[in-house]
Amino acid sequence: MGTLKTIGFALLTIFCMGIVQVQGQNTLFKKVKNKVEDKVEEVVSEEAGDEGAVKTSNKKQMKEYVVDQGFINRADLLFHDDFNGERATEFPSKWTHIKGSIQNNSFSEAGQRDEVIEWISNYATIKPTIEGDDYLGDSFKIEIQVHFNLEGGNQFYNLNLRNSKDIYKHHDIRIANSLIGNGNDNLSRMPGQPPRGWHTIQVSFNKGNLKAFFDGVQLVNNPDIGKYEFTHIEIYASSPGSSRVGQTKSMINHFSIAKAGLPLYERLVTKGRIVVQDIYFDNDQYVIKKESYPALEKIVNMLKEHVDTEVTIEGHTDSNGTEEANQLLSENRAMAVKKYLVSKGIKSSRMSTVGYGEERPIDRSNNEKAWATNRRVEFVMR
Fold first, then answer.
1. Of 26, 61, 109, 246, which one is least surrounded by beta carbons within 10 A?
2. Residue 356 maps to which CATH number?
3. Can you tell me the distance from the alpha carbon of 170 to that of 128, in angstroms, rounded to the nearest whole number?
4. Is residue 105 a part of any domain in this protein?
5. Based on the domain organization, do 306 and 202 belong to the same domain?
6. From the centroid of its chain, how far is CA 112?
7. Which of 234, 258, 282 is the last residue in one of the domains?
8. pLDDT on residue 260
């Protein structure tokens, strides 16, 4: 009996040692895997260059980072949509229908839930609703997050840069998984196959010089595409999943256009005001947060370059809280902005302040998206 116990104990010991060894190997594998992934991120960052492209791998992509990584400055935004607050199955409210079927929806994958628009028919086409369809000009940036399902079929997204004055001067940028096609040029491919999921595409156009990035890797660098001046953009997609049961449809969850290089002063003169939503304060506070400095420095530079310009600084809040508290908060925030500008050398006499509280909302919807839009500072020419 004792011999049996001894043998049993020995076998148990050997078994436990095997488990520890396997666990150790798994731990080592995970450490090596993490180092490899970190190295991939470094390569992506290095290859992105100094264009301000997203410097992150797809592994760490989250919806919130897209606008804030420096490729597009929020102060320069001409159009932005992340589809939050939209009703599922309805047509997206900020877009104009051209052909086919597209709808709002929600999509969850890998623990991330996104509000999206999805293509429920192949080659459906839409465009941002911007009055006049004449907003791109010779310098702009575009940022879009697209989903690739890798389930077979010819899935792609097409950014069609349009020239409404000359039908022979349109230009297509086609995005498929791991590649970008630039007009009639050859396709440019990623060094490797990106995984299923969300991918960020960035396009920079500056007086004929077109650059395009796929997850931070530059795939297009064309210094002269005819020196076109484009007026507006249309988007369509091939969506194999729209006709196949159980297959994921083509989707986007974020789209932005910035009027790159458009001087603040030109915007102020043209529209009479500049709306800035990149001036941040803590909740119910009026101390300017350091994240606001880049946007404020642009205002400082504009006022220094145009010494005869005088402005009224308007403070606006959302509708949370009492009207009285929001009114006082908006006044204090406008005054805080003026004090900052004075500290940077702008004469106090060139600026006045006023607070409107929650009185003048841009978006009257009762949701977080609307509240964020309504919290802002405006600079009005006087």
1. 246
2. 3.30.1330.60
3. 17
4. yes
5. no
6. 16
7. 258
8. 59
Cα(first)–Cα(last) distance of the chain, in Å? 101
pLDDT of residue 77: 81
Task: Report the alpha-carbon distance of residue 233 to residue 157 in Å, rounded.
Answer: 13
365-to-85, 361, 373, 375, 380 alpha-carbon distances in Å: 9, 9, 10, 13, 25
Q: Which amino acid is at 131?
A: E
Strands 351-355 and 311-316: parallel
Mean pLDDT by 10 residues, the chain (382 residues): 50 48 37 33 31 39 42 79 93 96 95 94 96 88 95 92 87 93 84 90 91 91 82 95 88 89 72 84 90 90 92 94 95 96 96 95 81 89 89
Beta-bridge partner residues of 251: 118
- For the chain, how many structural domains are there in total? 2
User: What is the structure's pLDDT at 101?
Assistant: 97
Of 378, 254, 268, the residue nearest 313 (C-alpha): 378
Residue 135 shares a structural domain with residue 250: yes
Q: Are strands 197-206 and 209-214 parallel, antiparallel or unpaired?
A: antiparallel
